[in-house]
Design goal:
homodimer; alpha/beta
Chain lengths: 361, 361
């Protein structure tokens, strides 16, 4: 059997991306948007990327059931059975567990790459080379592998990974995970050269991750073990519908990665951003000589620096006397907000919903 | 003959309004726009207003020939013969002269109110009462009457009129016209109570204005006198096409009003703005408690004061941390500009045309 046949991918695309409002909206979250005007949405780009090393039929999309139609529309290449529908939002651990049980029912030798749908990868070939290296590694060693990215700045928006000495071929045992640090700590991490960004992209053999669930999140594993006869049958949907909402809301990092002792990190450098905030988008965007980043639209800046501007294509903006702002328009909504205050956007959106109704969420 | 039959109106609607970019564009200047979302453009509002005291068939529109189709579309009430087409842009004096010659050919007793198409009048009944008072005055006294507006602030964007002592019923002889003053002088004017804004709305009998042209702008009068047999005939268009481009580019204020000795001012107070700039629009707009003025769209302001916001209807803007800006979108163009720098908009537009082409003019 071709080793490729054992390689799977699970694309997690159920989030709301509320920090990217007004681009990202409840009924059309950011993974379904063509952020950069390249003609493909983020989830489509993620699919395209993995499809170069994973057979189409082995790519699964885990998403909230509200987005099933969007997934089918944007990814006509996959069948309905490749869409894993989450009845409720329950963070990454339940989602990953469900996908693992389904895939095990199909192929108990599966090696699985798990990835968010909405990340930006600039150096695709380097990325794919690392994914293959990781898939090969987990096929041989029963490990939980995470992709660590070498930091290029003291970013406070990411979690960090510290590794132990030793290791080969850029794969090292993980010593500790650290939640998002404050700026001073992030600076220490960055300058030490010993810390890596936690990309949230994982690779493991299906048996390794199922063992980890049984060990560290037994409430989830015990419930899902009851459905072993149902995965990949017509009975699966009702079974998931019943059990999924009961799962605790917990991330794979917190539930398993920070606890297991077979966690490894593959050190990589493929131009990565989680596109978690407008600021992260600004950081990775090309800028003009005044450090203005413009996506999609035409623009003229006068006495304006360090802005992120994104309007629908064909639009033109003339901006004078503005520094350090986000100017973003999408779907009839214009946001003008200081970059430094972007963490408050969620509150602005809540205020808008109070004033004008939930259709603006 | 009904005295009403002698009353005429000339609406001057040939300007570009370039200071109101991006609302006002070369192919759709501001007089043709529904600035306030009331359902009628400025020229339509001007027509509606005068049509309450002037018979429809006595209302003439003077405009650049490029805008003939727009006038016909927006004012289907009038006939083609009521549209006076200027072959080239030549300021107000040639336009007013042409209209006077045409109207004289139809009615040598005509009393004419001449008005820009794009001014805002808030107190319509008061305005119309003054127009009628003025028409009655000029029918009896061979005078050049201008409407003077009592200032409510030391505005530097308007010309001022000083009148002589005496006069009756709010009509006084004009002592002097003053061009746009600097702020210190405007403050003196405002506080003295003796100066009035020059509204650019004039009333006179057709013979009085023709006499004034023959006296003060004989080059224009001599040429137009050659066509006395042609006005209101099929030969008029060719005659105007030949002579109009030769006229000097001169305003009625500079060419006649500042020189003639039969100039009177009707003092009025009808909530007037020439809508000459974004700032003048801001001044007359309703504002929220933070002095933000919003036209048409929905909005949420956070830590933002003294802004003028106008987006197309149905749009929503969320604006945080912005003070004293113009935020204006029209026709796929977004302008964000400090209110204090609005006089530079013309230059921004020129720069845009250099960068992206003349379609943005």
């Amino acid at each position: 059997m071709d080793i490729m046949r054992d390689n799977y991918c699970v694309i997690m695309g159920g989030g709301i991306g509320s920090r990217f409002w007004p681009f990202s909206r409840e009924n059309r979250p950011k993974q379904f948007l063509d952020f950069f005007g390249v003609g493909r949405s983020l989830i489509q780009q993620t699919f395209d990327r993995f499809n170069q090393v994973i057979p189409t039929e082995n790519i699964y999309i885990a998403t909230n059931k509200n987005y099933a139609a969007l997934v089918k529309e944007q990814l006509p290449e996959i069948t309905d059975s490749q869409i894993l529908l989450e009845p409720t939002r329950r963070n990454t651990a339940p989602c990953i567990a469900y996908a693992a049980y389904r895939i095990q029912a199909l192929n108990p030798n599966a090696n699985i790459a798990v990835t968010p749908a909405d990340h930006l990868i600039l150096h695709e070939q380097n990325f794919l080379m690392n994914i293959q290296k990781g898939l090969n590694f987990v096929a041989k060693f029963p490990s939980l592998l995470t992709l660590g990215v070498r930091p290029n700045r003291p970013e406070t928006g990411y979690g960090y990974i510290q590794t132990e000495e030793g290791g080969t071929d850029n794969i090292q045992k993980v010593k500790a995970f650290t939640e998002k640090p404050d700026y001073e700590l992030a600076k220490v991490f960055f300058e030490s050269g010993e810390f890596f960004w936690n990309s949230g992209i994982f690779i493991w053999n299906v048996q390794t991750i199922l063992d980890a669930f049984r060990m560290y999140l037994p409430e989830i594993a015990n419930r899902l073990d009851q459905g072993l006869d149902l995965y990949n049958t017509p009975g699966e949907a009702a079974f998931i519908e019943e059990h999924y909402p009961v799962f605790q809301n917990i991330s794979i990092d917190y539930g398993i990665m920070e606890k297991a002792n077979n966690v490894y990190m593959l050190m990589a450098d493929f131009g990565w951003s989680d596109l978690g905030t407008w600021g992260s988008l600004y950081d990775i965007s090309e800028k003009d000589e005044d450090q203005n980043a413009v996506l999609k639209c035409k623009s003229l800046f006068i006495e304006s620096e360090n802005n992120l501007l994104t309007l629908p294509e064909k639009k033109l903006a003339v901006i004078q006397g503005l520094n350090d702002y986000i100017i973003a328009e999408s779907d009839e909504i214009l946001l003008i907000c200081k970059k430094a205050d972007e963490q408050r956007i969620k509150q602005f959106v809540a205020d808008i919903a109070m004033k004008y109704g939930e259709k603006y969420l």
